[in-house]
Specification:
Blueprint (H helix, E strand, L loop, with lengths): L5 E6 L4 H10 L1 H4 L3 E4 L1 H11 L12 E3 L7 H10 L5 E5 L9 H13 L4 E2 L2 H9 L15 H9 L1
Parallel strand pairs: 1-2, 1-4, 2-3, 4-5
Helix pairs in contact: 1-3, 4-5
Length: about 160
């Protein structure tokens, strides 16, 4: 990973205020990275960070995708599969079923498959952002699945 990371930010409805508050508390660190957000979450985060110009080296960079249930989770999954996401911060709601649970599961599966660092709550997001690995050059190892694919085709 390069020093400037592309960080995906996602939150279920009940968790959006928590993620927005977390982003607000880490604005200085996050301004030095590119943010990719699903629809409503991204609009809320952009509103909190509006007016931030950075310090010359860092600038506000937020890309909005579709809302999660309308395909935003799948857009994000595609970006992960293409190597376009360096870290995923996904405040998901463990207390409420989501109408797009299969998309959420697919997104988390891809993040795991491609070894993308993933935070699912405030504590893991704090640990991730404060890690000495986060601000340096770090290249996560991605397992080579060619033998699995070839084996599957031979069946």
């Amino acid at each position: 990973m390069e020093r400037r990371k592309t960080i995906a930010l996602v939150a279920h409805d009940n968790m959006k205020p928590d993620l927005v508050e977390w982003v607000d508390g880490h604005r200085e660190s996050l301004l030095c990275h590119s943010l990719v957000c699903t629809g409503t979450t991204g609009k809320m985060i952009s509103k909190v960070l509006i007016g931030e110009k950075g310090d010359g080296k860092c600038r506000l960079d937020v890309r909005l995708l579709k809302s999660g249930p309308l395909g935003g989770d799948q857009q994000l999954g595609a970006m992960i599969a293409e190597g376009g996401i360096d870290a995923l911060i996904f405040f998901w709601d463990p207390m409420e079923a989501q109408p797009h649970d299969v998309d959420v599961k697919a997104l988390l599966r891809l993040a795991t498959l491609y070894n993308v660092p993933t935070a699912v709550n405030r504590s893991t997001a704090d640990f991730m952002l404060s890690s000495p690995l986060f601000d340096g050059d770090y290249e996560p190892m991605v397992k080579d699945y060619r033998s699995y694919v070839e084996r599957s085709l031979d069946r």
